[in-house]
Specification:
By secondary structure, the protein is mostly helical. The protein is 75% helix and 0% strand. Bound molecules: phenylalanine. Phenylalanine (PHE) binds next to helix 1, helix 2, helix 10 and helix 14.
Length: 457
């Protein structure tokens, strides 16, 4: 068992920062703004908040419970907690989700490297909004370049995984995360002082309720799960490294708060600029990559800003890719009794193959679709909108109906040493509200609710 070999976080601060490092990433700064953009703005944000609070928080806490209680990898925990049952399917779902997420996440992470490179070579200077747009489409749709960057990023993740996450990442997170915050805030200020910035703020904060439909709700739920890294065992794995007296409730609140804050700051940084430069908020995955270089161009020393920003984005992505990679590596290592480096190599190669296809699906393989989605979009859809919510739902059902409440309470209160004022509310949400809400959202998206309504009418 690799329990002893696994990283243990050095301190409570380490616990919070590593978990925030896992949660905060491209999901907040790249995916959140473009999802908000294509789903109509503030109405999406509102549902996103509701999902974070009523689904995200209970699921996160429940994952912390499972992880710290059994101190195993995502698939292994259910063998300890529910031996001889099918509950370990939750873990397998998580392992596959890790592969699939990395299959497109590594590609976008690679894009950050391209932009770092461009900032260094000075080629981001003096371009118009259209030029940024064209350049991005040309770059992301080309064959070799994006794949090379993807390869490089997977290589970086691989090296860290093989040599152990250890203090390197914990220490890097301690420096990088606060710097990321600072840069975000400075860029928010720059963005809201651009001409017509208020249009962007209105888009982000003034809800138009007519925009809400089943697909917006599913997207908001998917975004909440993706951003908080829940439903796929990442937080189970991380919480198995938590120090014994970690306050699980407080940690869940802190991580959720910081993750949501970063997403909102990213929104404030992007949307005023989007409206100011006349870019469509519905641009999709390229949104951040076109908007931000534009903002930087408005600043003195624009290149330096680009450089700092994309380095930080890359680092935020790296702390997430490591956590994703670790889920799959730990599983291969333990389940197949492989040495860790071989397990990591298989995972890296698997991601690379998926990454090649998802990168090519931005260009020459664009026409090959699965359910009308390109391979890149398919990996994103199947994970964020299906596998993570499904995993979260099963986690809640398992703990809600199979775990003794006393055991649950003892773990979440550190054997009664920290109070849990809303324990019953939490249990109610975890047991009933979260599974039912997730189930309904699925049914609604599949169109089944409309069908039932039609049948009844
Ligand atoms: N939450 C990460 C982000 O926002 C992505 C992620 C998802 C990481 C699931 C781990 C598990 O970028």
């Amino acid at each position: 068992m690799s329990t002893e070999k696994r990283v243990t976080f050095g301190s409570k601060l380490g616990v919070v920062l590593a978990t925030v490092g896992c949660a905060v990433g491209l999901g907040n700064i790249w995916r959140f703004p473009y999802m908000t953009g294509i789903n109509g703005g503030a109405a999406f944000l509102l549902i996103y908040f509701i999902c974070i609070l009523f689904l995200g928080l209970p699921v996160m806490l429940t994952e912390f419970f499972i992880g710290r209680k059994s101190r195993r990898n995502a698939a292994g925990v259910f063998k300890v907690m529910a031996p001889g049952t099918k509950w370990s399917i939750i873990g397998y779902n998580g392992v596959f989700a890790a592969f699939f997420i990395l299959g497109f996440y590594a590609v976008v992470s690679g894009w950050t490297l391209e932009y770092i490179f461009q900032a260094l070579s000075g080629s981001l200077n003096g371009k118009s909004a259209e030029e940024f747009q064209q350049d991005f489409t040309l770059f992301s749709g080309s064959i070799i370049r994006p794949i090379l960057w993807t390869f490089l990023f997977i290589g970086m993740t691989h090296i860290i995984i093989v040599s152990g996450v250890k203090k390197g990442i914990e220490r890097a997170s301690k420096i990088m995360m606060p710097v990321l915050f600072l840069i975000l805030i400075i860029l928010c200020v720059r963005s809201v002082t651009l001409p017509n910035a208020h249009l962007g703020l209105d888009f982000l904060f003034k809800p138009d309720f007519s925009k809400i439909n089943s697909s917006v709700i599913l997207s908001a739920m998917g975004q909440a799960f993706f951003s908080l890294s829940i439903g796929m065992g990442c937080l189970i794995t991380y919480s198995s490294y938590f120090v014994k007296d970690t306050n699980l409730q407080k940690t869940a609140l802190q991580v959720t708060f910081l993750d949501t804050l970063v997403a909102i700051l990213a929104g404030i940084m992007i949307f005023p600029a989007v409206f100011s430069f006349g870019i469509e908020p519905t641009a999709g995955p390229e949104l951040v990559f076109i908007t931000l270089p534009n903002v930087f161009n408005q600043l003195p020393l624009g290149n330096i800003w680009s450089l700092i920003f994309f380095i930080l984005l890359g680092v935020a992505a790296l702390t997430s890719t490591i956590s994703l990679h670790e889920v799959a590596t730990a599983y291969m290592h333990e389940e197949y009794k492989m040495i860790r480096s071989r397990a990591a190599l298989i995972v890296s190669l698997g991601i690379l193959i998926l990454g090649i296809f998802s990168s090519l699906s931005m260009g020459i393989l664009k026409e090959y679709t699965i359910f009308g989605l390109t391979f890149f979009e398919f990996l994103d859809y199947i994970t964020a909108k299906v596998m993570l919510p499904l995993g979260g739902m099963l986690i809640c059902i398992y703990v809600g109906f199979r775990v003794d409440r006393k055991i649950l309470k003892a773990e979440l209160t550190n054997e009664g040493t920290v109070p849990f004022y809303f324990f019953n509310t939490y249990v109610f949400f975890m047991k009933y509200i979260a599974p039912i809400a997730i189930g309904l959202i699925f049914l609604n998206e599949l169109g089944l609710i409309q069908k039932i309504q039609e049948l009844v009418a």
